[in-house]
Amino acid sequence: MNTRLAMTLLVASGLALSACAKKAPEMLPPEPGGVTPSQTTGGDSTAPVPGSQADFVAQMMGQDTIYFDTDRFNIDATDQAALAAQAAWLGRYPAKRITIEGHADERGTREYNLALGERRANAAKNYLVSLGIDAARITTVSHGKEKPVALGSDEASWAQNRRAVTVTID
Amino acid sequence: MKKLIPFLLAVCLPASALLAQDATPAASAAPSEVEEDVVGTLDNDARIAIPAFATNADVPTQTSAGTTSTLGFQVANVIFGNLRNNGLFKPTGPSSLPRPALSQVQAPDYGGWRSRGADMLVQGYVRAEANGNITVGCYLYDVALGQQRAKAGWTVPPGEWRRAAHKCADMVYSQLSGENPFFDSRIAYIAETGPKNRRMKRLAIMDSDGANHRYLTTGQATALTPRYSPDYKSILYLSYFNGQPRIYIYDLTTDRQRLLLQSQHPLFAPRWSPDGKWILYSMAIGGNTDIYKMPSAGGNPIKLTDAPGIDIGGSFSPDGTRIVFESDRSGSQQVYVMNADGTGQKRISFFGGRAATPEWSPRGDQIAFTHIAGNFRIAVMSPSGGSLRYLTDSWQDEAPTWAPNGRVIQFFRTTRNSGKTGLWQVDLTGKNERKLDTPVDGSDPAWGPLRP
């Protein structure tokens, strides 16, 4: 169901999946929107440049990050919806590449958490690929438990830290 | 730096006149008597007097300690610190004891030491050699019996004077405990500073007592999980130098580093074999992490594990024939053993909860690991997975590393909420636990072998 939603979004954005997957980035037309910051018009400097990381974050409204249960790396329905939204954005900007950063909470040993973060980032990557995003556009990196966003030592903080964050490469 | 290249100690200097005078010492005490002493010592917390070392002439030295007289005090103080910190002994240091005259070094005032309540006496001398080197003579006396127990001497370059003190402490420790020495060793670890979400993690090294501390990396790239090579010439560690976790090898003789191997995949958990000929590493491909080994001199890697999921880490048995490692193939982190060629993989941890970061004792008899059942605790078990014993009980203790003699373990402890980390040490009884002094927070301790 979520997959179908993603398909719809991609089609709605005017890009056939096959085109997205097969064409090399340099073959594609220039991205919509300004590529360089200097092109922004003076008045509305608060509006992110379409296709930029700031635009991605603004458009995703939190869905640039997916969350995992303790010791798990499966993509649940909420994650699927978030990844579908990411896929739709990536469909609009087919020259954009992304890095998926995998993280773990502090309640695991350091090395295992590095491997677990990598596994989570790959789970997100694989799902995006299943939605038609070219795997060559996606890199992963694990930070294990080394870069928490929530600083408490409690279940609520750990839940926020077990995450995979998609970051676009400008 | 050149300074860090371990210079070989001249063992039992023939040039040492004091030692030469006494060619056949009482080191040949009946073994049965020694055996009794050991038991008594361990039970009774031997009171060891360690006065300042004497000198033949108070002259300037090129050491950081000053003249031979102040150096004699500092040598005794280092020995005092070593022996005080392991819980087996009750030493008294040079600050509160009279310094014997040079003539008393081989003829101790037994009566005077008895009246001070000393069971054992460690004393010696310091002499500056013409070429700038320092000779240290070290003597252990049984005050109650009025007998010399052991003696040794070393000549060291001035920058390594602390090693002579560690060697002396090692001699005393071995004599009185019956265990192998461990003080003359070094530790690599990760020095941590900054708030929990922006923690700077630097590679650092120090002597086993925290002296000669040095940062090896600047902290611009996160460094993790160091391991000293068995010859102390290099350190394997993980760095995010190019944004991705990769394994680097830091050459301590040149202060240069290089990638262990080129890879498009993340690499974790570097380890040496005890003979230094092999390196273990873990590599993630498509999220699936497996353990590999490669010759340290270069050559083709061999894949050792092939289970779906995370196989990571690894620690060789002292004879190099087996590897203990961590895998979540059963659904949670557990400890497994395999032959060094990857065959015969078998789970050994069945304690409930999770079992992680196994490290084989240098003695071969035990495996230290992190047991996770609610809290994280340092524990030991036999290589077959029996005899579980907890050594620590705190919120989060992880990553044990063995002292060269397999009797003491270091690990790191994380404080709840603040995320602050510290290096800790515990002996195998679990009773003698203490925090190590480091300039800043510390994690991932990696204890090297006895220095060559």
Task: Describe the model.
The complex is a heterodimer of chains A (170) and B (452). By secondary structure, chain A is an alpha+beta fold. Chain A has a single domain (2-11, 50-169), classed as OmpA-like domain (60s Ribosomal Protein L30, Chain: A, 2-Layer Sandwich), CATH 3.30.1330.60. In chain A, 41% of the residues lie in helices and 14% in strands. Chain A has six helices and four strands, in the order αααβαβαβαβ. In chain A, strands 1-4-2-3 form a four-stranded mixed beta sheet. In chain A, strand 2 (97-103), helix 5 and strand 3 form a beta-alpha-beta unit. In chain A, helix 1 (2-12) runs parallel beside helix 4. Chain A is globular and about 40 Å long. Residues 1-43 of chain A have low confidence and may be disordered. Chain B has 452 residues and is mostly beta strands. Chain B folds into two domains: 2-177, Rossmann fold (3-Layer(aba) Sandwich), CATH 3.40.50.10070; 186-447, Neuraminidase, CATH 2.120.10. Chain B is built from five helices and 31 strands. In chain B, strands 1, 2, 3, 4, 5, 6 and 7 form a seven-stranded mixed beta sheet that branches. In chain B, helix 3 (68-84) packs across helix 5. Chain B is globular. The chains are: A alpha+beta (170), B mainly beta (452).
Quickly describe the structure:
Chain A is α+β, with helices and mostly antiparallel strands. Chain A has helices at 2-12, 17-22, 53-60, 77-92, 110-130, 155-161; strands at residues 65-67, 97-103, 138-144, 163-169.
Query: Helicity level of chain A, as a percent range?
Result: 40-55%
Number of helices of chain A: 6
Can you name the CATH architecture of chain A? Answer: 2-Layer Sandwich
In quaternary terms, these chains amount to heterodimer
CATH class of chain A: Alpha Beta
CATH 4th-level superfamily of the largest domain in chain B: TolB, C-terminal domain
SSE succession of chain A: HHHEHEHEHE
What structural category characterises the helix and strand content of chain A?
alpha+beta
Task: Classify the beta-strand content of chain A into a percent band.
Answer: 5-15%
